[in-house]
């Protein structure tokens, strides 16, 4: 359906814009950090907004794992049109969410050819997870890892306060 | 549904980003023009991409009016979750599309209070229409007008080649 494409196209435009704007600046290293954090911050705010709409009629979660399951199913399906394929946890606040066909990487050819381009296209989604969790009362550090496109792993480490 | 919200939140982020980036530059007037054209260009590319997916299994259109009707119904519904409320034409290449509750303006309080903020939130959608039409072989000039939020009129003038 054309419906899913809207988010994918918009996301591509955002990444292109952020990197284009920064390309005019001098310091290359600083540049890369700023781009990732700009995209991450955008994702964070979108994640906050989305989860708020999403959970307004929801029961509360019985524990963190219950909440993560909700994130992997309902939240992920709404945004990326599929569920997370695999959720693992060490039961000590670390979760690994694996998506075997991550929507924002499917425009690339599969395999390792464009692997170095991947981080650009994951920063927004890391922020999205962090924003959603934050609005549900969990501060976290979220990182992403790709070893073979279009599969992707998000690692979420809950910060104990 | 939370589904519609994703596009609205992303659009807000894009507008904020484009205006923030430009706020660091000197010339205020030039600034405003650049922001609008950046947003319009992003909309154009998204419109092109969307209409391509959308029309790949579609019959061809019998005339421009037929095409505009498709844009007002199917295309608009997919993106903005409602149809255009009113379509008028002078049968000489000018079309006026009126949306009485335009999705990207509903976050504002109704009325005239934030009227001067409106153009920022219409540039992307003007580009979207222009991009969609362009991919269907019609070059156009698209402008938008708001007199009372959240209602909005888009004027499309088809350019004869």
UniProtKB/TrEMBL annotation, chains A, B:
The keyword Endoplasmic reticulum applies. Pfam families: TRAPP (PF04051). GO terms for biological process: endoplasmic reticulum to Golgi vesicle-mediated transport; nervous system development. It is found in: Endoplasmic reticulum; Golgi apparatus, cis-Golgi network. GO terms for cellular component: cis-Golgi network; endoplasmic reticulum; trans-Golgi network; TRAPP complex. InterPro entries: NO_sig/Golgi_transp_ligand-bd, TRAPP_component, TRAPPC6/Trs33. Its main location: endoplasmic reticulum. Keywords: Endoplasmic reticulum, Golgi apparatus, Neurogenesis. Component of a transport protein particle (TRAPP) complex that may function in specific stages of inter-organelle traffic. Specifically involved in the early development of neural circuitry, likely by controlling the frequency and amplitude of intracellular calcium transients implicated in the regulation of neuron differentiation and survival. Belongs to the TRAPP small subunits family. BET3 subfamily. This is Trafficking protein particle complex subunit 6B. It comes from Sinocyclocheilus rhinocerous. The gene is LOC107758819.
């Amino acid at each position: 359906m054309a419906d899913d494409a809207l988010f994918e196209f918009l996301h591509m435009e955002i990444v292109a814009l952020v990197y284009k704007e920064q390309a005019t600046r001098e310091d290359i290293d600083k540049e890369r950090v700023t781009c990732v954090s700009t995209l991450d911050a955008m994702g964070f705010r979108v994640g906050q907004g989305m989860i708020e709409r999403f959970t307004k009629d929801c029961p509360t979660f019985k524990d963190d794992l219950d909440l993560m399951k909700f994130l992997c199913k309902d939240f992920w399906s709404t945004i990326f049109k599929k569920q997370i394929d695999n959720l693992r946890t060490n039961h000590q606040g670390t979760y690994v969410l694996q998506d075997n066909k991550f929507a924002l990487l499917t425009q690339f050819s599969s395999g390792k050819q464009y692997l170095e381009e991947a981080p650009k296209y994951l920063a927004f989604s890391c922020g999205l997870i962090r924003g959603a969790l934050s609005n549900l009362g969990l501060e976290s550090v979220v990182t992403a890892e790709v070893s073979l496109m279009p599969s992707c792993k998000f690692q979420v480490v809950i910060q104990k306060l």
